[in-house]
Structure of Glycine cleavage system protein H:
Amino acid sequence: MDQNEFSAEALWLLPEENGNVQMGLTAAVKEQVGSLNQIELLMKQHVQMGQAFLRLTGSLATVEIEAPISGRLITVNQALVADPSRYQFDQDSDWLLIIN
């Protein structure tokens, strides 16, 4: 498998009123990775802008995604991490994590 690194086109970000930021994967990731088999968080408590913080393994490739912002990891959508095949790449329904 190829291993690539990208960020800007890979994630959508949704700022919340409380200062948190929801993040999820865009359709661009699906084109690159294919069907998701595994979602792995590389940083467990804090993410650093510009550093790889997420590894996605799919039917077409494995990619590492750089963090677009720095912050503390608040929560992870464990249902999607446990079963990545459920991910629909839809901002309205599939947030992956929340950072503050």
